[in-house]
Amino acid sequence: MRLKPRAFEYIKATSLQDVFSVLDRHGDEAKILAGGQSLVPALNMRLAAPEIVVDVNAVEALRGIAVVGDSLRIGAMSRYVEIAASELVARHAPLIASAIPFIAHAAIRNRGTFGGSLCNADPASELPACALALRAVFNLAGSAGERAVAAEDFFLGTYTTALEPTEVLTSVDIPLAMDGTVSYFDEVARRRGDYAMAGLAACAERRGGTLADVRLVFFAVSDMPHLAAGAMAAADGQAVAGLDIEAVCAALGADFTPQEDLTTSAATKLQLMKVLTRRALTAFAGGEA
Fold this sequence. Notes:
By secondary structure, this protein is α+β, with helices and mostly antiparallel strands. It has three domains: 9-55, 2-Layer Sandwich (Uridine Diphospho-n-acetylenolpyruvylglucosamine Reductase, domain 2), CATH 3.30.43.10; 65-175, Uridine Diphospho-n-acetylenolpyruvylglucosamine Reductase, domain 3, CATH 3.30.465; 181-286, CO dehydrogenase flavoprotein, C-terminal domain (Enolase-like, domain 1, 2-Layer Sandwich), CATH 3.30.390. The chain has twelve helices and 14 strands. The strands form four sheets. A five-stranded antiparallel sheet has the order 4-5-10-6-7. Helix 10 (229-235) packs antiparallel against helix 11 and helix 11 (245-255) runs antiparallel to helix 12. The radius of gyration is 19 Å and the shape is globular.
């Protein structure tokens, strides 16, 4: 196997207009370099062979973490290590703060970027599931203008998103966590840092002793993050004190059949999904997960 990329032109962008100019001219033949933790290995193994690589590390418009109105805005170039250290993320999007330590290893988290993970759309990645659970809105921009895409509409399949070849993800807006918001993140992997065999990003509202607006999003079990509608409906409105966790797990089994992969059968993945669901709901009810 070759471990050297095919020759390509390198452009270091300093503004979004620089990026738009390249994408308008070259479309799919151009690749954006952010953290490079997925792109560089793909280049070296020639799984990707673009004509042009556009480095966006100097584009300040893609950086920053701030509260904007009733949302937390995370710039696409925010690195995992920056998100992990952010008090704003810990306060307003605790689910994401909980997920960051599960991502690969420290060396990857030092360079990898929030937007890079979302645009790569690896079905075993943690952050796409968090974005879907939190009803994130993706802010996309190109020379033709800007548009906002809900997380439910952004992920289309394995390594496939609604991002057009001439667009770039600039930032993501996440509704601020409210009083009573509870969240839970966990995954099962053979070793810490390996891809998960199954993972869960979950959140809900505790209102007057009941659970409401329950969101259960699984990853590494399908071709994209899976919103478990049947299990969510079974949990929604249940009293916290008498939460029927097994009924939710039963609904999960009726709602979805996971996709097996090279190492884990569909039956094993479903069992792991139920284990993770029990942990999350136990935590939501105030017990030990």
